[in-house]
Amino acid sequence: MSSITSPLRTKGISRWPRTWWWGALSLLLVVVVAVAAGIAVAQRQTNSANGAPNAPGFSLPYAYGGQGQLGLDALRGHPVILNFTNSQCGPCLDELPTLRWAAQTYKGQGVRVVSVATSADTATAAGRLATALHLPFPVLIDNQAVSWQYDVQAVPATFFLDTHGQLQGLQVGPLDKQTVRNGLAQAGAISCTSCGPVASVGPMTADMSGHNLAADVVFNPAKHASYFALPDQNGKIITPATLHGKVVVLTFLSSVCREQCPLVGVTVRLMRRMLGVDASRLSVVVVSVDPEQDSAANTRAFAQEAGWQGTDWHYVTAPRSVLAPIWSAYGIYVPAPSPIFKPGQTIVHQAGMYLLDAKGSLRAYFNVPVMATRIAAAAKTLMQ
Fold this sequence. Notes:
By secondary structure, the chain is α/β, with parallel strands linked by helices.
């Protein structure tokens, strides 16, 4: 039988008591563990000392670039460019070449680009756009719950995460190459002597308290709401004064539209969810822009698809000759119907959302698409 000679034995250490040796080895292990723990604690202290908040975790389904879902934890150890976008947002489209450049240029440094389609975007629309452009990064689909966690008020918005998953910088508005370099340098992903700072990120509280009317148009002082008296889907006559005591979302839609209108419907649903118990103090009024197709059955189907069950909503309509002066009074452009009419045809029209206060006065206007976070925060302000 062959034997293995211990290196310790060849140096004469075998004469030391075995109990002493195991004690020394145990002590050494304790020291190593303690040192490692100290380094980890020191690292955590360093990470927290810089004041950067941790990025809220999420797991979202792919609209493009993968199967199933992608979780933020899977990107830990990589610097991340986390971009919130919408496939129908002009500035979002403008920055796509920059995001492509960033994904390709900094891949070797471990940087990962992830785009999150939100603001009531759809997986079909977002995926179709990404496929047509052959984007070199994944696109995920969000029902605005994640964008709410990140306190995204408008798209595009881009966060720069370091390798520890902390939010080191923020760019609101379209990216350019220098802003990308600035953000990555601030996140410690690259060295850049010519880079400047990007905006820092505050705590991720998803708290709407303290917000003001951060709308596209703020009526200050409040503006008198132009009068109308129109029947809703149940035959009830609705006027600006009918719902006094409630904050009112007033918008202009078509129940068969398959472009912006469904996005508005989803935004209203998410807005109500964000308001929580205060949603009972909100009413939704939709003025038809498509009176030829907005039957009671179609408007109810639209509300059901949008998830308005339990919502105080009123879809009002009338003949086109009655509605036209109302559209004009609220600045909503609606073209004449096509001479070649097809049932289910999408009506191209201006979309927007007004907020009326509890006294029935106009207080704010939002272009569409709009983040549910923004309009919920404004409604919350009017309820205070």
